[in-house]
Structure prediction request, 302 residues.
Amino acid sequence: MLSANHLTRTYGDVIAVNDVSFEISSGEIVGLLGHNGAGKTTVMKLLTGYIEPSAGSASVDGIDVQENPVAARSNLGYLPESRPLYSEFTVADYLWFTATVRGVPREQRQDLIAKALQRTGLVGRALETIGTLSRGYQQRVGVAQAILHNPGTLILDEPTNGLDPSQTQHMRELVQRLAKDATVVLSTHIMQEVEAICSRVLIMRDGVIAVDESMENLKEGNRCWLSSNASLEEVKTALNGSMQVRQFDGRYLIAHEDSSIKCDIPAIVRTLVTNDIAVNRIEPEKRDLEALFRMDHTGGMQ
Prediction:
């Protein structure tokens, strides 16, 4: 389990992360989203202990990252935004070095390196110098070092950055396999990637968690679309101010005053028909993650 407890990080007068709290259980694949400057990379660095919080705490499997960093990191794999690679090393030498730094017993290193190479598709590149590899293969090396010691928690910042479509699919499948025995948090700007593999989404805005919801609930939405020949004022009057009604492209978007409550479509239809409002079509809102991301950035998410 990975926990953030009222995490805050400031730089002078700038609040990069503001009172962020959440818990992520084993087996979850959580997408951490946000526009540039939203605070997501800072949160990742706080969770891994790369920087200290101004307030609050983070823990890995109940171990406080600041109080006991060595123990916490022993079960944590991290792929930072800038890959932690030494370009003059061969892939195998770099992974041996990483295993040594992590304190992996010498007798276990060879087997763990072989497993990491196999899982990331790097067996044929093991003796090549990292600096000669393509960006995509360098990204794989970064993931290999993160999973080398079989951590129970993985934090991946842009894991498919620089990968071609085939490599991206391979990486998605790898992350899904890893999540069977681990907690996985990944940051990405590719909405399709989050929709493909994540079960939960955290969206950050201005240093705070603006959205923390399961993918299923996010895509369902709490609003509904109405097609009717009636005017906007007629629909509003029929609903007697109990719902928010806005007009878009000839249709009406209806939402409860409390945005956390889903529209009761049968009740809405009964009310409209009782008030002689023709209902040509009514359906729940279906949302894609990219649209939600844009709406949140403009403060319009409901």
Q: What stands out?
A: The first strand starts at residue 2 and ends at 11. The radius of gyration is 24 Å. The chain has eleven helices and 14 strands.
